[in-house]
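Now for our target.
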Amino acid sequence: MSVGTFAFSATLSRLIGLAAWAGFGFVGFVADEVLAEEPRVEVFGDGPDVLLIPGLSCGADVWQGTVEALESDYRLHVVTLPGFAGAAPRQAGPFLKSSRDELLAYIDQNDLERPAIVGHSLGAHLAYAMASHAPGAVGPLVAVDGLPFLGALQNPDATPETVRAQAEQMLAAFDGISRDEFERQNELSLRTMIRNAEDIARVASTSRQSDPATVGRAMYELMQTDLRADLAAIEQPVLQMGAFGGLPTPEMRQWMGDRYREQIAAAPNARFVEMPTLHFVMLDEPELFVRTLDEFLKQNLATAPLSAVRP
């Protein structure tokens, strides 16, 4: 097996293998405010505003450790998207564009001044979507092992058209899936994305509450939405994290790092950092994750470019 094939297989199983299944319960962890219901947004702490967007099927609770570490320095707006982790699903409309627009509306309605956006997996894709669609509305971005175009992870020349068949297969796999099979696949995929057995069990206990049809639709759209060229509109600082702890050789990690760098090449102020974890960086290495995130926010949250005028 070639380096590229092995690395792609490992990463694809992480991102697609029912992808980023979500969160552990906020036991004894109560938000200071709930400022929106759809998507649900819980607010913790005080300071500069930061949105935390979880990944596919994830709830706000996947950010619990991050919130506990940072709420004394930031006001953290922690999102749960419709249809994920027990939240009621949307009845109609596209998933990604609706989520993008609802989150931008949340920023506007609550008078947030260019908040930082931190997204994991699908949440990272949404962070890129928000910033490229309304660059004046948001501040610096942190993409935690999520990309502008999942379909081009192996082949940078891929387009939505060339990966449509795979996307349709993914969508069909969720059509009519039983709850038992959904939960079984959930736990199997978590074992490839989180190292600690206790974390896996906690995540599995709530991620199974996601709506399978919503998960399938979101995954299909993720594979059919190419934001790479749109990143040219993002002037603010971007930190792209790649979780390569499952890749066993330096050659494989270098190969995958090159694919990630290609994806963010259009963003004029982006940098890439490799993380020695599986997909859930914030669970596998919480201290490293918080330190890396906090350093980036302190350096960049107050220095986002002023040339972009908020719409």
Observations:
- Residues 44 and 68 are 9 Å apart (CA to CA).
